[in-house]
Amino acid sequence: MTREKNEALVKRFLDECRLVRNLSPNTVTSYESRLGRFLDFLRDVPVTDLNRRDVQDFLMELREEGLTASSLQSYITCLRSFGSWLEGDLWDEGWRNVFRTIDYPKLREQSVKTIPADKVDQMIDHMPRRTPTQYRNRALVAVAYSTALRASEVVGLNLKDLDLDNGLVYVENGKGGKDRFSLLDRRARHTLREWLDKRSLYGGSESEAVFVGRGSDRLTRQALGNVVRRAAKRVGVKATPHTLRRSRATHWRDMNVPLWMIQKLLGHANPTVTDGHYLATNPLQIANLFKELMEEQTNDTARESGSGVAG
User: Backbone dihedral region of 177: left (phi > 0), alpha (psi from -120 to 50 degrees) or beta?
Assistant: First the structure.
């Protein structure tokens, strides 16, 4: 229902652009395309409930996908125009225009941040496990990092999307409406099993969502962001769900995971074939290949440790 309400607001805005402001057809078409992409990002979040961080997260996602500065600026221009119209349309409801404060330079500065793998380990290890909510939050952070999914994709996961036996998670209707998969490491699978054992106690039996809040409602992106920020603060770092995604990709690369595989797991378009040939893209084959890479790294570390002792 929320999506329909968001679309209705966008339609009224586009009608005004076309009939009242007399903007060119090309401009209106451009606005329609960009706002449609924005609604895809929001999923079930009402436009009227947004905060500045939501908008920045959207722009960071676009930047990650390789949009140029000029293309990003066109999105900002569109969103600001939409925000100004909303401000006038919703003035009697006291709505605050969060689009007005969009800042591209700050976006660029934030988008390159990552945190070390050992800090991510500390974030998750230091999260308490006493209540169902705490078990859920720990699984939430572990899954967000392990899979490198976008925030909207993490909270959009359904129970049927999990394949814990094979360490896979499936993403339906991801960016661009495309389905894909990602990987669940051992810790993510363990924390998920712990949470799923307690999920029914939290009222989640009536929902298909993996991560639920009070009353079986699907957890929101804002809630995920709050959980990640609190977990990071506990170990003295700053992080958002997007930071975890970027960090995971960087750590995969540090582990010598092929670039084409990382791009496929991240859901980027046109993966670059860095190895000179395209390996199998069947989910189970990639999961097995990933396990082999992990085993090779473990063996190399053990050999290096053994050599050091012998010397």
Answer: left
**209 pairs with which residues across the strands?**
158
What pTM did the predictor assign? 0.65
| Count of C-beta atoms within a 10 Å radius of residue 232 | 21
In the chain, where the domains are located: 2-110, 117-299
Supply angle C-alpha 3, 42, 148, rounded to 5: 140
Task: Name every residue whose Cβ is closer than 8 Å to that of residue 181 and which is 6 or more positions away in sequence.
Answer: 168, 169, 170, 171, 265, 283, 286
> Is the pLDDT at 309 greater than 60, yes or no?
no
Question: What confidence tier does 199 reach under pLDDT thresholds 50, 70, 90?
Answer: confident
- Sequence letter at residue 143: V
Q: Please state which of the four CATH numbers 1.10.443.10, 3.90.180.10, 1.10.3210.10, 3.40.50.880 is assigned to the domain occupying 117-299.
A: 1.10.443.10
Helix (H, G, I), strand (E, B) or coil at 1: coil
2-110 has which CATH code?
Answer: 1.10.150.130
Neighbours of 129 (CB within 10 A): 13
**Regarding beta strands 168-171 and 162-163, do their DSSP bridges make them parallel or antiparallel, or are they unpaired?**
antiparallel
pLDDT at position 229 over 60? yes
**Who has greater pLDDT, 184 or 280?**
184
> Coil, strand or helix: which one is 255?
coil
- Report the SS3 class of residue 203: coil
